[in-house]
Amino acid sequence: MTSPSLTLFRGFPATAAYCWSPFSTKLEARLRFAGIPYKTDRGAPPNGPRGKIPYLSVAEKNGATETVSDSTLISEKLVTNGLAEDLNGKLSPAEKAQDMAVRALLEDKLYFYQTYERWEQNYYTLRPGILSALPYPVQVLVGQLAYRKMSATLYGQGTARFSPEDISKFKRDVWENLNALLASSHQKKNSGGPEGMFFVLGGSAPTEADTTLFGFIASGLVCDA
Description:
The protein is globular and about 50 Å long. The termini are far apart. The chain contains seven helices and four strands; from the N terminus they run E-H-E-E-E-H-H-H-H-H-H. It is of the alpha+beta class. It has helices at about 20-35, 70-80, 95-120, 125-130, 135-155, 165-190, 210-220; strands at about 5-10, 40, 55-60, 65-70. The protein is about 55% helix and about 10% strand. Strands 2-1-3-4 form a four-stranded mixed β-sheet, covered by helices on one side.
């Protein structure tokens, strides 16, 4: 069976460096865990099937091309098509629930706290980073439109209804609890043995939670905003 050609559209320049999107980097980690070769390209949210980043173009050797969006749905598609192993396939029901809880904590809570920090508190640092493909005058116009939309989203979702101090505490609580989980998994993995690689749930192999956490850690480290 000949593997298709995969192109990951991240919304940022196609370099070897990680980008500011935690979901794009999450998907890169997923592809690397599976040993799947891929290329990266900038792309843009309006060009994706769901109007967001990331999205993946799957080009078959017969010329057929399919574009899939949403990092979770892309991962499921890779498994369904036999391109990647199901990372959660061997987990118990309790472990699957824990894995989903970790991902939800990151994607449905921390994401919005980080988005508030980037868009509301560091907008003028964020704008040239996410709109670098546009000339400066256009960055100002497009940035203002995007800012208004994002502010409305954050208020409707609920994050922007809290004070900056509250949001900072919420974000710190998330990271402190994740750090405690990782410390416990590290101790479990390395108790009585040599130091080595460990994973979020303390098992011998990565799960989907590991790809998500990696995406958020890498994104937080490289983002200037």
